[in-house]
Amino acid sequence: NTWEWTDETQTQVRWTEQYLNDLETGNVGQYGLFQMNLLMNLAYINRIMPSEGRTSQDIYIDNLKRPLTPFSHDYTPNFLLPDTARDDYFNFTTQSNRVTSTWSEWLPDIIRANSTAQALEYYESAIAAMNSRGLPTVVAFREDAYQRAKDAIGVEMGWPPHQPGYQIPSTGPNGDFSYWRYALYERQD
C-alpha cells in the first residue's frame, strides 16, 4: 500500500513508511509508478501478458480496469502492420529511422526552451528537418497501414467518439468487453 488516509474524514492522504522506504531505495517499480497503468487499455495489456503466473497485483489491476473498459481507447486500429511486401518498404524503414533520429535531436531543445515562442520556433525547425529527411513518405506509408487496420475491423474512424452513430457507453462493475474488436490479422483463434 503506497498511501493511507490521514483521518476518518478521508479527505487527505499520506504516503506509507513502506512506500517512502521503497522510494528512497529506488524500489517503486513494483507499484507500477513508472506509468499510469490504469489508463492503459486492459484488452491490450491482457494480450501482451502471459496468462499463467499472473500475480495477485496483476489481477487487482485488471479488476480496477474492468469498469473503465468501455471508456478506454480501442487500440486495434493503432496496431500498424506495414506491408513488408511493398517495393518501397526498405525506403520506408530507412526514412522512418531518419525521422525518429531527427526528432530525438530536436526534442531536448523544445523541452528546454526559454519561452513558448522559442519552443514553437524549435518545433517548426524540427518539422522542417524531419520533412527534409522523409517525413511525408513515412506518414503516407503509415496512413496506408492505418487504413488497412480500420478496414479489417470495419470502422471509418479510429477514435471511437468520431465514429458515426457513436453513443457514450455505460458500464457495470465488471465493464463490458463487447466493445473490443480485433483486426483480422490479430485474431488468435
Outline type:
extended
- Count every helix, treating DSSP H or I runs of 4 or more residues as helices: 6
Mean pLDDT: 77
**Number of β-strand runs:** 2
Instruction: Report on the biggest sheet.
Output: 2 strands, antiparallel
What is the helix fraction of residues, given as a range? 40-55%
Rg measurement, Å: 22 Å
Structural class: mainly alpha
Order of helices and strands: EEHHHHHH
Strand content: under 5%
Enumerate the spans where pLDDT stays under 50 for 5 or more consecutive residues: 183-189
Distance linking N and C termini: 38 Å
Biggest sheet strand order reads: 1-2
Protein model, in words:
Helix content is 44%, strand content 3%. It has a two-stranded antiparallel ribbon. The longest helix has 23 residues, at 89-111. The protein has 189 residues and is mainly alpha-helical.
Q: Which tags fit this structure?
A:
about 190 residues, about 45% helix, 6 helices, mainly alpha, extended, disordered C terminus
